[in-house]
Amino acid sequence: MRRRLLQSLVPMVIILAVVAAVPLANYIATSTSRTLFLSRSNDADWFATMAESPLQSGDIASLRELAVRYHQLYATPVFVVDVDRRVIATSRSGVDVKEPDLKVALDSTLAGRLPAEPAALWPWRSGEMVVARPVVNNGRVLGAAVLRVPTEKGRDQVERGLLLLVGGLLIAIGAVVIGIVRPITRWVLRPLNDLDNATHQITRGALDTRVSTDGRAPELRRLGDSFNSMALSLHQARQREREFVADASHQLRTPLTSARIHIEGLSRLSPTARFALSDIDRLGRIVQRLSRLAGADRPGIEAEGSEAPLDLAQAVKERLVGWKAVYAADDLELIIGEMVPGGVAPELEVDDILDVLLDNAAKYGAPPVEVSVLRDGTEVVMAVRDHGLGLGSRDLKKVGERFWRSAHHREMPGTGLGLAIVRSEAARVGGRVVARPPIGGGLVIEVRVPLIDDYED
User: Fold this and answer.
1) Which of 193, 248, 327, 404 has its CA 20 to 30 A from that of 26?
2) Which residues in the chain land under pLDDT 50?
3) β-sheet bridge partners, residue 49
4) CA 309 to CA 344: how far, in whole Å?
């Protein structure tokens, strides 16, 4: 019965999935093409701005050098034409403005209109994407800046998206088939309900749950025995895990205490030692959390009371002791601004957050770097400011996104995860991260966390 039902329903589900996949595939290709087009449009706009003065003065040597450097850096040919379609500056020779795709783009651009977005990228199509922007002065078109954007990576991305789509459709087909067949066959499989309920009990942590195997069919009895054996193994593994965490946290306390005593003695002589002392304290807090975790998982053991609020200003000042030495070693200036005491959640990882912000300021910004802690209504604000180039309005909205990096810093080492970690740490205690351009230039990253009302200075 189940086989016959599957033979009639599965083809229908497949047809419906294919019908649904066509617009989704088109969306993937169109979206990838639009993203590539918009990203390169910003570069074309920049070239159009840079070409305005050379087109008027006739001094195109610097413009040609910019085109060559851009081509070498991004593997994207670029050229600039005047209003008569003469190539003024190019990153590679052999540009033919009469090529159909170039002619269409230049017809629109030199007429003062932005060219239409290119067609969707499909893996089986080849060729370059043309991105053109007019060079305008006082409303008069002087020429056009044109990029011939390679599309191999975009087409590879579309191919991966289509493969994921096919995989998702296969999973969806399986889910639909199971969802239709299950109600029909449920009455046949009623003896398995006990096993299903027991599984849910185990997922909720009741590892001592067992199923009865009395009076069952041989197949179900074997399944029940296997389930009970698995539940017993899980229960024993969890017990061993609790014992390991408890023993490890207990064994770590003594060497950590000893290490702290020795480093505390050295901290009177060296700021770097005080920096290490704060790391020892942080490791100690981790061990305490492990100990509480092991205790909280044991029945009949209550968790310890909540810790006292953390003075954010004091925690920042202690961490800055080590960072001042790091900055001084690199001939960078680190300024400690106003430090207003304010209580925050004790689980806020201040050291981790400050390490990311100061490391980013040193790598991507410019000195001096200023750190301050202020109160703003019901929030305590830790702000790190540098005096670098800052970020544009579009980039400011993307700060904290995973793997995002500014176009000015993509050639520098990094993963694009630092600020995402900071945002996650702040959100864990109900806080947020704000990036803004300060007066005088540069960039300010603010970590805003709730102020604990009952905190006493």
Assistant:
1) 404
2) 1-2, 4-5, 292-293, 296-305
3) none
4) 5
The partner residues of 435 in beta bridges, in order of sequence, read 445
Q: Which residue, among 190, 129, 134, has the nearest Cα to 154 in the 3D structure?
A: 129
Judge if the upstream peptide bond of residue 437 is cis by omega within 30 degrees of 0. no
Cβ(107)–Cβ(87) under 8 Å?
no
List 78's β-bridge partners, or say none.
147
Query: Tokens standing for 404?
Result: 């995002």
Handedness of CA 362, 366, 368, 371 (dihedral sign): negative
- For 237-266, the pLDDT digits (tens) are 777 766 776 666 656 666 766 666 666 666
Residue 304's region, left for phi above 0, alpha for psi from -120 to 50, else beta, is beta
Q: What is the rounded CA–CA span in Å between residue 162 and residue 159?
A: 5
Please state, in angstroms and as integers, the Cα–Cα distance from residue 30 to each residue in 36, 44, 87, 161, following that order: 10, 20, 31, 12
Q: Which long-range contacts (CB under 8 A, 24 or more apart) does 101-107 make?
A: 101/127, 101/130, 102/130, 102/146, 105/130, 105/131, 105/132, 105/146, 106/81, 106/132, 106/144, 106/146
Enumerate domains of the chain plus CATH numbers. Answer: 2-157 (3.30.450.20), 193-305 (1.10.287.130), 310-450 (3.30.565.10)
The greatest distance separating any two alpha carbons of the chain, rounded to the nearest whole angstrom, comes to 97
CB 198 within 8 A of CB 211: yes
Here the tokens at position 372 are 């301050």
- C-alpha 112/C-alpha 135 separation (Å) is 9
pLDDT of 299-348, one tens digit each?
Answer: 444 434 456 888 999 999 988 888 888 888 888 999 999 999 999 988 88
Contact 426, 445 (CB under 8 A): no
How far apart CA 434 and CA 316 sit, in angstroms, is 18
- The whole-number pLDDT of residue 216 equals 65
CB atoms within 10 A of CB 322: 20
- At 328, list the tokens: 């001084």
Tell me the CA distances in angstroms from 46 to 43, 68, 142, one per residue in order.
5, 15, 15
In 3D space, the residue among 445, 447, 450 whose CA is nearest the CA of residue 429 turns out to be: 450
**C-beta separation of 144 from 115 below 8 A:** no
Residue 373 CB partners (closer than 8 Å, separation 6+): 312, 313, 316, 338, 339, 340, 342, 380, 381, 382, 383
What's 118's DSSP letter? P
Q: HEC string of 228-273?
A: HHHHHHHHHHHHHHHHHHHHHHHHHHHHHHHHHHHHHHHHCCCHHH
